[in-house]
């Protein structure tokens, strides 16, 4: 069916602005979300992306074609509704529309997503349509607010946004999760795992930099925390140590949560059924424990973990459940960490790194630390990790021409959205998730 729309569009009102039009006759444009009928009345739930409003179509108030259209309108058809805005204390919005005219622009019966339980595999296949549900719309809106809060946080504190390349010559976070891309006569390129190394170069130029973009990991794990493509924000600051880094991570998280609570309390409570009291507890100071103390906490629950073991998702869950707000775990065994970490001068077995674990079982959402700023030590680590020296000459240069103590972190947007929204799996936190077994739609 072709789209039937007037060549010059009359101005319409958004549902989110409806309270400003109390008693007026307005034009709404949107989609049919739901419908209930009783003889001479049709109750249409119309959504326009900004909200949902009940539109009452009464046989006596509308032309005959309009009533017939309201009778046959299929789910998710695009529609135009004209009517009078009326207060309705029973509606969550506070208003409903008493319809005077109704028109279907385009629609077809058989919308794949029905108001019943669907399997998540099916919904993922229908992701392009699933996004229209009120739950997914709320997640998109919270994600937007989180990204905006992050941008504002850094912009208001004198950071400069510096974009890092997506096609890179070498690994930043270990060679086991690299995506390879053929690259002309130069052979191979890799999709970036992190913009950090470029962020470090930028910090030496602008003092306080942040990189914000998509990152890629060929993760062969099918967990609720892993995507193969995810967004990461990476602040990097010259003349900052691990202490300053931890303060930055803590402050950023408090601000993100505050902004989301400010703007989306209703979505969180009514749509996502999130326990907002748990979010309100995200206040400074966050507990700070060393990796060694973290191991003791986990051992006390009867778990056989020992110093030097990797903390997997299960161990993180056990640990973060013991705190009512995010916990900062610092000074991990250097052996477990990437080549660029500075070692603690007081105990070179441990790296000056920090992970922030979100509460309620969510686990790591931020990772970062202080960088090795000594040329010889960094060169030795590059060799020890069997990384190609040529690809890192430029990175070593930063330790040759005015090296300074510096630090930064990476915050994963999807894991943060998952925690703030209280979702079970990161696949709902990004509009079109990419995972080991999913590349469509
Ligand atoms: O801990 P990661 O690997 O740290 C880095 O990449 C550093 N270069 C960051 C820095 O210091 N500038 O990743 C940082 C964060 C994790 O804490 C997690 O939130 C997220 O990125 N992350 C993932 N999110 C979704 N899917 C994956 N496969 C992820 N891997 C990491
Ligand atoms: Mg990490």
Structural class by SSE content:
alpha+beta
What's the arrangement of strands in the largest beta sheet?
Answer: 6-10-11-18-17-16-13-12
Share of β-strand residues: 25-35%
Termini distance? 23 Å
Query: On the 0-100 scale, what is the average pLDDT?
Result: 96
Total strands: 18
Determine Rg (CA atoms, Å). Answer: 26 Å
Stretches with pLDDT under 50, minimum 5 residues: none
Number of H/I helices: 12
Shape: elongated
Major sheet: size, sense and barrel closure? 8 strands, mixed
**Helix-strand string:** EEEHEEHHHEEEEHEEHHEHHEEEEEHHEH
Give an overview of the whole structure.
With about 450 residues, this protein is of the alpha+beta class. About 30% of the residues lie in helices and about 25% in strands. The protein has twelve helices and 18 strands. The chain has helices spanning about 65-70, 120-125, 125-130, 135-155, 195-205, 240-270, 275-280, 290-300, 315-320, 375-385, 395, 415-420, and strands at about 25-40, 40-45, 50-60, 80-85, 95-105, 160, 165-170, 180-185, 185-190, 210-215, 230-240, 290, 325-330, 345, 345-350, 355-360, 365-370, 405-410. It has an eight-stranded mixed β-sheet, with helices on both faces. A hairpin with a 4-residue loop joins strand 16 and strand 17 (about 365-370). The longest helix has 30 residues, at about 240-270. The radius of gyration is 26 Å and the shape is elongated. The model has no long low-confidence stretch (mean pLDDT about 95). The structure holds 4-amino-1,4-dioxobutan-2-aminium adenosine-5'-monophosphate and magnesium ion. The site of magnesium ion has 3 residues, from strand 17.
């Amino acid at each position: 069916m072709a789209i039937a729309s007037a060549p010059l569009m009359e101005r319409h009102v958004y549902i989110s602005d409806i309270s400003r039009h109390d008693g007026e006759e307005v034009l709404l444009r949107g989609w049919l979300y739901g419908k209930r009928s009783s003889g001479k009345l049709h109750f249409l739930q119309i959504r326009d992306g900004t909200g949902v409003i009940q539109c009452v179509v009464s046989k006596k108030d509308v032309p005959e074609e309009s009533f017939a259209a309201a009778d046959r309108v299929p789910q998710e058809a695009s529609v135009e509704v004209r009517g009078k805005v009326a207060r309705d204390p029973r509606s969550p919005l506070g208003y409903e529309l008493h319809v005077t005219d109704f028109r279907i622009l385009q629609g077809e019966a058989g919308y794949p997503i029905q108001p019943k339980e669907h399997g998540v595999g099916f919904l993922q296949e229908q992701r392009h349509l699933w996004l229209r549900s009120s739950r997914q719309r709320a997640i998109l809106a919270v994600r937007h607010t989180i990204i905006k809060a992050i941008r504002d946080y850094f912009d208001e504190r004198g950071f400069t946004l510096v974009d890092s390349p997506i096609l890179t010559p070498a690994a930043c976070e270990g060679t086991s999760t690299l995506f390879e891309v053929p690259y002309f006569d130069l052979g191979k390129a890799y999709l970036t795992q992190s913009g950090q190394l470029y962020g470090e170069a930028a910090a030496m130029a602008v003092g306080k930099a942040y990189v914000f973009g998509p990152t890629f990991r060929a993760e062969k794990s099918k967990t609720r925390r892993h995507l193969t493509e995810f967004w990461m924000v990476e602040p990097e600051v010259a003349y900052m140590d691990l202490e300053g880094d931890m303060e930055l991570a803590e402050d950023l998280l408090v601000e993100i949560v505050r902004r989301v609570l400010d703007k989306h309390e209703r979505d969180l409570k009514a749509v996502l059924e999130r326990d907002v009291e748990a979010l309100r507890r995200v206040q400074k100071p966050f507990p700070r424990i060393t990796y060694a103390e973290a191991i003791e906490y986990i051992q006390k629950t009867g778990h056989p973990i020992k110093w030097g073991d990797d903390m997997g998702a299960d161990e993180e869950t056990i640990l973060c459940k013991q705190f009512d707000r995010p916990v900062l775990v610092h000074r991990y065994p250097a052996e477990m960490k990437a080549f660029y970490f500075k070692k603690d001068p007081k105990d070179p077995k441990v790296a000056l790194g920090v992970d922030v674990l979100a509460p309620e079982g969510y686990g790591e959402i931020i990772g970062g630390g202080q960088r090795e700023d000594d040329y010889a030590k960094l060169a030795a680590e590059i060799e020890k990790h069997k990384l190609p020296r040529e690809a890192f000459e430029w990175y070593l240069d930063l330790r040759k021409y005015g090296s300074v103590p510096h630090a930064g972190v990476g915050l994963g947007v999807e894991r943060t959205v998952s925690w703030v929204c209280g979702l079970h799996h990161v696949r709902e936190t990004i509009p079109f998730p990419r995972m080991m077994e999913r590349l469509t739609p």
